């Protein structure tokens, strides 16, 4: 006989009550088993963007420590669901582990060196830039392995921003002085965006606002949003479609108002 969702929620709530009573290691371990799928899911998503030699099990192990810290620090009085609260901590613990592993110099730089040498050799031999297929043949790789190598080799590039650009003159001009700050935001545009956001979301409920924020800003899936808001995936999708339809209707009725801004 399948276990109902309500029964699972009651069991988890019971575990939390027992944990807050005595904070025993046994109760903590029981809670960790319940939320372990979040650790695995987060680790696997990060793993997809990393070189093949990084082990997903190492990421999961690091994420478990993040989950443990989240359980110890969780305060239900804040009104935030634990699944929402623990995910950033799990992700942070995994990223900290990657930094401590220092995988960039050992893996990515080695791959970049391998790819660079093959490219230079072919360029000297052919008298032109080689194609991807020619480089793959030089490395004795099929195209899938080559693209994987290419992805890893270009995963990161470090440039010293203190390098001087004026090698002959007396002006102390460095890389950092001429790089465009693409992260800086135009105050006027940001103010317009804020006004538009407030105008559009004025009639939305808290849950509807959360769905938009989690989907478009946090890039969470419908399934993840459902788990966060305690709703089914189909219900979240239905609400999202309804919200978008209402916003489109508002845009149509307020075209003149937007164009005058």
Short structural description:
71% of the residues lie in helices and 0% in strands. The chain has 261 residues and is mainly alpha-helical.
SSE inventory with pairings:
Blueprint: H1 5-22, H2 25-47, H3 56-73, H4 82-101, H5 103-126, H6 132-138, H7 143-153, H8 175-178, H9 187-201, H10 206-217, H11 222-229, H12 233-253, H13 255-259
Task: Report on the architecture of this protein.
- By secondary structure, the chain is an all-alpha fold.
- It has three domains: 5-101, RNA polymerase sigma factor, region 2, helix turn helix motif (Rna Polymerase Sigma Factor, Chain: A), CATH 1.10.1740.10; 104-158, Arc Repressor Mutant, subunit A (Orthogonal Bundle); 203-255, Arc Repressor Mutant, subunit A, CATH 1.10.10.
- Helix content is 71%, strand content 0%.
- It contains 13 helices and no strands.
- Mean pLDDT is 76; it is low at 1-8, 156-160 and 165-169.
């Amino acid at each position: 006989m399948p276990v109902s969702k309500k029964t699972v929620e009651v069991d988890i709530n019971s575990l939390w009550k027992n944990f807050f009573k005595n904070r025993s290691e046994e109760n903590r371990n029981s809670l960790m088993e319940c939320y372990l799928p979040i650790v695995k899911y987060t680790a696997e998503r990060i793993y997809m963007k990393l070189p093949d030699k990084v082990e997903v099990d190492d990421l999961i192990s690091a994420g478990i420590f993040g989950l443990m810290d989240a359980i110890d620090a969780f305060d239900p009085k804040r009104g935030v669901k634990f699944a929402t609260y623990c995910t950033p901590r799990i992700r942070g613990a995994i990223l900290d582990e990657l930094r401590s592993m220092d995988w960039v110099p050992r893996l990515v730089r080695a791959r970049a060196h391998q790819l660079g040498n093959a490219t230079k050799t072919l360029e000297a031999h052919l008298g032109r830039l080689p194609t991807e297929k020619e480089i793959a043949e030089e490395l004795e790789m099929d195209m899938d392995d080559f693209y994987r190598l290419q992805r890893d080799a270009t995963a990161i590039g470090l440039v010293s921003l203190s390098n001087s650009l004026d090698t002959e003159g007396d002006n102390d001009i460095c890389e950092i002085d001429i790089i465009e700050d693409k992260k800086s935001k135009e105050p006027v545009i940001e103010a317009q965006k804020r006004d538009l956001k407030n105008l559009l979301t004025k009639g939305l409920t808290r849950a509807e606002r959360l769905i938009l924020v989690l989907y478009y800003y946090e890039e969470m899936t419908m399934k993840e949003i459902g788990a966060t808001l305690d709703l089914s995936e189909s219900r979240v999708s239905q609400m999202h479609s309804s919200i978008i339809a209402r916003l489109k209707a508002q845009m149509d009725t307020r075209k003149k108002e937007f164009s005058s801004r």
